[in-house]
Structure formats: C-alpha cells, structure tokens
C-alpha cells in the first residue's frame, strides 16, 4: 500500500458552524497518513477556538492565521 503523506488544505473564514463537521469527516477517513493545514483568514467568530480543540486531540491538524495587514 502507498503510504504517501496526503496534505489537506482548508481555507476558513467565519465558518464555526461548519469547521467541526469538516474536520470530523477528515478524522473518519480510513487513510491515516495525512496532515490537515487550516488557514484562517482572521475570523471574527469562534472558528479558531474550535480548530485549536482539534489540534489538541490530533497533532495532524495544523492551524495558521493570515497575518493582519498593517
């Protein structure tokens, strides 16, 4: 079987109502050699706190927040 790392990239902006369901669907996949990179576009809802909870449970989730333009 091919054990190549699969990278999943998810953009996020104010999707607290959907991000948990999205990340749950990734966890439920049978293929286990993956990383999930979530890029948040400075959400104003609680998306980032939900994502951080998933990071605590599974270190394959990696969250990044877009820098604030100055």
Briefly characterize the structure.
The protein contains two helices and three strands; from the N terminus they run E-H-E-H-E. It is an alpha/beta fold and 70 residues long. Strand 2 (34-40), helix 2 and strand 3 form a beta-alpha-beta unit.
Q: Any overview of this molecule?
A:
A three-stranded parallel β-sheet has the order 1-2-3, covered by helices on one side. It is α/β, with parallel strands linked by helices. Helix content is 33%, strand content 27%. β1 (6-12), α1 (16-27) and β2 (34-40) form a beta-alpha-beta unit. α1 runs parallel beside α2 (47-57). The chain is globular, with a radius of gyration of 13 Å. The protein is built from two helices and three strands. It starts with 5 loop residues before the first strand and ends in a 5-residue tail after the last strand.
Coarse morphology: globular
| Unreliable stretches | none
How many strands, what sense, and barrel or not for the largest sheet?
3 strands, parallel
User: Helix tally?
Assistant: 2
In which order are the strands of the major sheet placed? 1-2-3
Helix content: 25-40%
List keywords for this structure.
single chain, 70 residues, alpha/beta, 2 helices, 3 strands
Structural topology:
Elements: E1 6-12, H1 16-27, E2 34-40, H2 47-57, E3 61-65
Parallel strand pairs: 1-2, 2-3
Helix pairs in contact: 1-2
């Amino acid at each position: 079987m091919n054990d190549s790392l699969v990278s999943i990239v998810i953009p996020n902006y104010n999707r607290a109502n959907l991000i948990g369901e999205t990340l749950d669907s990734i966890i439920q996949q049978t293929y286990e050699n993956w990383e999930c990179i979530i890029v948040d576009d400075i959400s104003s809802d609680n998306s980032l706190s939900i994502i951080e909870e998933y990071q605590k449970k599974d270190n394959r989730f990696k969250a990044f927040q877009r820098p604030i333009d100055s």
